[in-house]
Design a protein that fits this description.
Blueprint lengths: L11 E6 L10 H17 L2 E8 L3 E8 L5 H16 L10 E3 L4 H14 L23 H4 L1
Antiparallel strand pairs: 1-3, 1-4, 2-3
Length: 145
């Protein structure tokens, strides 16, 4: 089932949850797969990725879709591939949440501090499954704005 998102212009803050909020991404191999899949999907369906975090039971992305791509298609492909590669069947809640933030830098700060707020890390840079760690390739907000 596809969600309808007629407005595709601008930076999007996406949140998608694991079904029943099970902490599947507490498993480092699953968290790594979630990130690797994000980059594979980006190659197939181009989008600008400004930041992300893979939490144990949900994911946050700050991105901008490049026409003619659609966020519904990107998220459908992403969730399908992660589920397939993890091998546990359908792991996701069927929908995702999307907003168009007025202050993208504030949203990026929220995304990066999420593991700190949840007690998973003492600082954002130490959490390995986040763009704050510096281990992953993202487009800087300054580049686009």
């Amino acid at each position: 089932m596809s969600q309808r998102h007629p407005d595709q212009q601008g930076t999007m803050f996406i949140t998608t949850n694991i079904r029943d909020r099970k902490p599947l991404f507490a498993n480092p191999a699953f968290a790594r797969e979630a990130i690797d899949t994000l980059y594979r999907v980006q190659e197939l369906h181009p989008f600008f990725l400004y930041g992300f975090v893979i939490m144990p039971d949900h994911c946050h992305f700050l991105m901008q879709v490049v026409e003619p791509e659609k966020i519904s298609k990107i998220m459908n492909v992403y969730k399908g591939i992660v589920s397939l590669n993890i091998g546990l069947g359908s792991i996701w809640q069927p929908r995702f949440h999307m907003t168009f933030p007025k202050e993208s830098r504030e949203v990026l700060k929220y995304i990066h501090l999420n593991p700190v707020k949840k007690g998973l890390s003492d600082n954002a840079e130490d959490y390995p499954w986040s763009s704050a760690s510096g281990k992953w390739d993202v487009t800087t907000l300054e580049w686009f704005f």
